[in-house]
Amino acid sequence: MKRMIFLCVLCVGFFLNAAAQTIIGTYAIQNVKTGKNLRPYEAGKQDGNKIVLYNHVEWKCMTWDFIHVKDNIYQLKNLFTLKTFQPAGNPKAGSTLNQQVLVSGNAQQEWEFIPAGDNRYFIRLKGTELYISLSDASGKTNSSIILQTKQNSDLQIWKLVKQNPGS
Question: Using the 8-state DSSP alphabet, how is residue 61 labeled?
Fold first, then answer.
């Protein structure tokens, strides 16, 4: 009986540790429903440039470096623009995501990757109940990315596609 309890505790510990593994490296962030990725509009480098949905290509402008903050919270740095994204103005449902200079410790630039099974994630703005979502359910190219409350929909589930585009 003691051996059985020990094995159960060991298994639970293994699965909890596996679910909380740190994301390391560079990835495209791809919507499960549309197969399209997050990127700055027209790969523009200016602050305030909107973040949009775009067909998957292994380009620097569609590749995000994961900067681990703690637990399952990250800042994301675009390999092409060297910037991140955050809500425009005070975060609320419907806020668009815009590109900004990466500032360490800025809570509006910290994203919680919540496992949704099978290496997929809900992405929530730290300290809120707002999730990265599509503004257009059809997944139209260059449609804005917004924040919304949780919908339990593939439109809010994202997978990471490992990529490391050349110069």
Answer: G
User: The CATH number of 25-162 is which of 3.30.565.10, 2.80.10.50, 3.40.50.300, 3.40.50.720?
Assistant: 2.80.10.50
Assess contact for 114 and 104: CB atoms under 8 A: no
What's the CA gap between 89 and 26, in Å, rounded? 27
Q: Whole-model pTM?
A: 0.87
Largest CA distance in the chain: 63
R_g (Cα) of the chain, nearest Å: 17
Q: Give per-residue pLDDT as tens, 76-85.
A: 999 999 999 9
Alpha-carbon span 100 to 30, nearest angstrom: 20
- Alpha-carbon distances, residue 100 vs 87, 91, 105, 153, 162 (angstroms): 10, 15, 14, 28, 23
Read off the pLDDT of residues 5-16 as tens digits, 9 standing for 90 and up: 444 433 434 444
Eight-class DSSP state of 50: B
